[in-house]
Amino acid sequence: MRFLTLSLALFLFLQGYCNEKQIHNLYGKAFTEAYHLHPEIPKGLLEAVSFTQTRLYHLTANEPVSCLGLPQSFTLFGMVEDGKGVFRNNLQTISSLSGYSALEIKTDPRTAILAYATALVTLNTETRGSAFFSADFPWLTRVSMLSELPAKKDFAFDSFLYEVVRFINNPEMAAEYGFKILGWDEEKIFGENLKVLSSRTIIAGEKDVKTPEGNVYKLSPELQSPDYPPALWNPAGSCNYSNGRSQAVSAVTIHTVQGSYAGCISWFQNCAASVSAHYVVRSSDGQITQMVLESNTAWHVGNQNSYTVGIEHEGYVTQPSWYTMAMYNASAALSADICASHGIDPLRTGWWPWLATTNYNTSSIPGACTRVKGHQHYPSQTHTDPGQYWDWDLYYKLINPAPAATMLTSASGIFFDTGGSGGNYTDDERVVWTIAPPNASSVTLTFSAFSVENTWDYLFIYDGNSVNSPLIGMYTGSNSPGTILSTGSSMTIEFRSDCSTNDAGWNATWNSSASAPPSNLTVQQSSCPSLGVTLNWSNTGNGWYADVSTDPNFTVYYNKNVSNTTSSACPGSFCEYPSCNTYLQFEPNTTYYWRIWDGISQTYGTPFTTPVCATTDNNCSGSIDDSGGPNGNYGSNEDYTFTISPPNAGSISINFSAFDLENGFDSLYIHDGPNVNAPLLGAWTGSISPGIVNSSGGNMTLHFVSDPLVNNTGFSAVWSCTQVTGTNDLPALFLNTYPNPIMPGEDLFIQTSVSGMADITLSDISGKIVLRYRMELNTGDNAMILPLLAGGSYVLDIHMNGSSRRFPVLIR
Questions:
Q1: How is the chain split among helix, strand and coil, in percent rounded to 5?
Q2: Could you give the dihedral angle defined by the CA atoms of residues 565, 567, 569 and 570, in that order, rounded to the nearest 10 degrees?
Q3: Distances in whole angstroms, Cα of residue 50 to Cα of each of 57, 122, 404, 495, 672
Q4: What is the 8-class DSSP label of residue 610?
Q5: Total-model pTM
Q6: How many Cβ atoms sit within 10 Å of the Cβ of residue 578?
Q7: H or E segment at 740?
Q8: Which contiguous run of DSSP H or E holds residue 137?
Q9: I need a labelling partner for 176 at 20 to 30 A (CA). Which of 107, 336, 375, 676 fits?
Q10: DSSP 8-state code for residue 494
């Protein structure tokens, strides 16, 4: 595969994003149930709190404890049972308010979601028992009251609330988790502090502080980091660190909080913690807060504190989604600055492939001269952070930008290590070569000798023109790479050696083969309900790729090796670099661009636009199967809607007799209305059938989406409707009612362009009259007061001027 240098960053983001998407699919029905039971809660708020606290992950007692002594958190909302006299025991608070036991909440994710929602609704915000109170944003007040953080308005507390508000104002989150952006005014909520809370980088000058975008604002001195200007300064309690140092700074320690950014900052400011670190890094955008001066000794790594600077990273070691590119970039820039300030060689950053899963012991340690490493890599430690998901190779590359590659452009040649044919390479090397003959279709590299220090020195070979290209392999000891073949026109080789013990290196030769450009690019589109296409071309040799993107400049794209083929069903195996965890899934009514290329030259195909696949059935009864029919499987990359809309229908009931979708990836959404913008009755995946689903009115819409891969047997269902009967001879032009649906106790408006006395009845779905009115209707809008009726479907009959009209009414 062949990608731009941003591909690795994109993959890491998408990997975390897809994990969160799958988790939300797992708990989505419970969130939907909570909103159904408590419709007053703004949709998206529950997910916002859960995402901020745990990235929608259900924390259990099995989660490793924090190396900071931070109180252990539980559930999708990070509830605390024992706040250690510092944090609030919000698990007990939520249990008391909701009526669910603490044990039920801790062990069952569905119960935790329902309990948190019930507690939100039960709270009395007028007690103002919160560090944050706003009559304009009462739900944010409620969220603050249920937080585990100490009830005081400070930077830590505002950081927590800011992350919640940012989630519910984020269009991408709204689209992914199915809610409408609330548009809460962040400036009104946080005032001048918004500039601090929202800035990824802060530039501190002598007279003012500003963001890179030029937003100038004043900060009090305590908000300016003394050692690292892009960071904030929010000092830890003086009881949690030692003044001065007994040794010079010579190492940087990487930690994971086992908690949130806000929680870590708050914990360091309380004497009960007896712990601190110099810096804390936020996951979502890489914001950094400094809490201890580098000239002082923070308490973060036991008996190794005297010479180390500690960096805490928001998140949990068991959840890779916390380790975002924003966090890696910010942390690496900080580590590079610490190295420069204290004379530490940044090449002494740990990078070995075994590092993330290796903890300190006498037989396997990360080397005495390793100066940027994890908590797990120091002697006499019991903690394992940052753990198996921390990408040490990426971190090393960010701290140490790749040196300029030596370009080898001959069609063939001889390739030695830096010691040449007869000498050893040296210590502390990082050297890069790129073999890229013009017009090559592939490169072959053959080793005749290979010997580097086993375990500590490595040769990396990449399938492309940079160290960010896909990795072919890494080699150490006497394990020769043998013969390596690239899939494209270039190959990059990187060598790294540690601080001691060198070896003879290698002898190798390379050669290449020429390529020919592709031709005859055409597109054959599938018919609905599939959105797929078949891409056709001719004249491709070894090392050619097909790319598909919504961007005509191919800044981001999906990629597939098509060497020596003439066509490819799309999406097929088109996937994101490097391990194909994310596959191309077409969206309706979207234009896509495609090309065939070899990493240097490309030929573009004609762009194509996917259709909108939608069907409406006006019958009062009928049956529906997935696209494969009652006996076949549905197809790949389907996205279509089926709307049931019989005339004069009062309600619709659909009954599923079979249901089998690929769990977590293919879904059926049922909406209570004529399109996908109507309220969602539910979303189903896997083999748990929807059973019987009822609409509240005369329309129902089914929306089916499948991914490009596994296709199951699908679904079969029948539907029927109840019809509203009676005369409708009063022209619709002269009469209308709104709103519909309507909330209990809300006024119902009757709109007419004629005047007269009207007799009005309201009946339930069984035909029982629950309300009679006789009132004068005037031209325009006429308010009719409804009593507090139970939610459900009703029928409104209006008799006026010798004519009548009937309307369905839904009360929520």
A1: 20, 30, 50
A2: 100
A3: 8, 19, 44, 43, 27
A4: P
A5: 0.61
A6: 15
A7: none
A8: none
A9: 107
A10: E
**Helix spans in 308-463 (H):** 325-342, 392-399
> Tell me: the pLDDT tens digits for 125-173?
554 456 777 778 999 999 999 999 998 888 889 999 999 999 999 988 8
Burial string for 22-52 (b: 16+ CB within 10 Å, else e) reads ebbbbbbbbbbebbeeeeebbbbbbbbbbbb
Contact 140, 134 (CB under 8 A): yes
Q: If you ran DSSP here, which 8-state letter would residue 173 be given?
A: H
Residue at 447: amino acid letter: F
**What six digits make up the tokens of 413?**
């040649």
Q: How far apart are CA 645 and CA 617, in angstroms?
A: 6
Report the candidate in 169, 119, 168, 164 with the shortest Cα–Cα distance to residue 146: 119
Q: Which two tokens stand for residue 754?
A: 């004629």
Residue recorded with tokens 């006395």: 757
93: three-class secondary structure by DSSP:
helix
- Hey, what are 728's tokens? 């409708």
* Those residues with Cβ within 8 angstroms of residue 331's Cβ, 6 or more apart along the chain or in another chain: 254, 281, 286, 288, 311, 313, 395
Between the alpha carbon of residue 339 and those of residues 240, 246, 251, 563, the distances in Å are 24, 19, 8, 46
In the block, tokens 């740990």 appear at 350
Given the structure tokens 């009469």, which residue do they identify? 735
Q: What is the mean pLDDT of the chain?
A: 86
Describe the strand order of the beta sheet including 203-204 as a list of residue ranges: 203-204, 209-210, 216-217
> In whole angstroms, what separates CA 49 from the centre of its chain?
14
- Quickly count: other Cβ atoms within 10 Å of residue 244's Cβ: 8
Bridge pairing between strands 602-604 and 591-597: antiparallel
Q: Token pair of 257, please?
A: 């909080």
How far is CA 187 from each of CA 128, 144, 155, 165, 523, rounded to the nearest angstrom?
Answer: 21, 18, 15, 11, 49
Higher-confidence residue of 65 and 564: namely 65
Q: CA 547 to CA 570: how far, in whole Å? A: 10
